[in-house]
Predict the structure of NAD(P)/FAD-dependent oxidoreductase.
Amino acid sequence: MSKPTVAVIGAGPGGIAMGIQLAAGGFDFTVFERGAGFGGTWRNNTYPGAACDVPSHFYSYSFALNPRWSRTYADQPEILAYLEQVAVERGLAEHLVADTRVTELRWSDQTHRWTVTTAAGVRQEFDVVVSAVGMLDVPTIPDFPGADRFRGRTFHTSQWDHATSTAGQRVASIGTGASAIQYVPAIAADTAHLTVFQRTPTWVGPRFEEVFTDEQLELFEREPDAALKLRDKAFQDYELADFDVESDITRYLTKISKGYLYAEIADPDLRTRLLPDHPVGCKRPLSSTGWFAALALPHVHVETSPIVEFTERGLRTADGAEHEVDTVIYGTGFAASDYLSTLEVTGRGGRRLHDDWADGAEAYLGTAVPGYPNLFTLYGPNTNGVTSIIYILEAQTEFVRRMLDDMVDRGAAAVEVGRSVTDAFNAEIQRAMADTVWMSNCNNYFRHASGKNVTQFPYRGTAFAERLAAVSPDDFLWTPPTH
Ligand code: NAP
């Protein structure tokens, strides 16, 4: 059999890693990207202060280490430049079809191929599709009554409006998640007034960051082992994590975070409003150096009365107050638990992926779904939360490459994961998660409306990689060619 042709949907960190595997294997492939170029979430999220809270020496590909990271937690422009450079150096530019939104994937039981349809109505057939759309691709903008009568401007963090600065403006910022704790400290000092609307308090721990000196950068360049030590340290820190509600680590982190809040916020009333009642990790763990200091500024106000509506001049809260502002920033997150929600996917026998996932997405090791042959999902269900996502993506893309090589060796037209192995895996991980912080007493985006945890992997990063590497071909159904 000739090598299968492959469509990769998305040119972020996953699509780039996949493209590199496919190029190395000599596959004919196309990377479709709705944006203008490589980078994915690191191209979209340009808000002030955007950075990655995974140490950069570990938030980078093992096959493209970067001795030149300027600091422990590189900011968005530096990460985007790194991703673009890796993609271009590995020859992916000629495979990229940018500014092209894929809307539909349809499997044919007759031809054993996928038809990929774009928003412009262009159709193209491929033997294999790899979704690399990620988990944080669809912004959530709450449907507040009266939003259309507001005369000021509004934007979501992933669509930051850089045309007009927030400096000197009265600003409302909705949400206190991973994005807000980065942009609020970056913009707060220069605003005329900033109201931070908090629905649920969340733990924010201290962040220890090193800006690398010229001497260090030269050392990393000269002696790669010196930089590898930093990578290894970050990797090991993640491997030690324990997400059990009752674990010593959870108790310790909760104590540390409470101590940090008390040390940073002197006002007892503000402390009380910022104090969560859940363990650390129930919501995504956060760390910051500037968050509490920004909230303590005299012209910054933390509002906990729920937003009930927009007015012409701002936002009204349940206590009746009207908050007049020029700009409203939605730091309200993403539809993280609605995997592949921008794609209409029809698999074997006409089944719809979103019907199959009506009670919450699930896959086998986050990567393959029964009923959907020759489809692989990078950063798919239950692959989040325990280590650098780059590490997970590398494991997944190596696995996909192995499956494609196997298809060629076996002369198979299609490969599909078995139902029983998938069901057993999902029953196992849901059991393993029952007593974790993710399932404890807070609202978080890990859980689908059905209550099922669809985002988190309950074991260590190495367990994920080892299990994928050890997957038996016997757990998959291999379809011979039709001719
Ligand atoms: P998020 O963590 O999901 O936080 C959304 C915030 O908006 C929460 O505080 C939420 O309140 C609030 N919210 C949502 N709907 C609301 C409503 N109707 N009214 C009032 N408040 C509302 O979103 P995010 O901060 O954009 O971060 C999303 C994810 O992006 C992160 O968890 C992370 O995975 C990724 N990220 C990563 C980094 C990094 O450094 N690696 C940085 C930024 C983002 P509740 O808590 O009450 O739901």
Observations:
- The domain at 147-203+254-330 is CATH 3.50.50.60 (FAD/NAD(P)-binding domain).
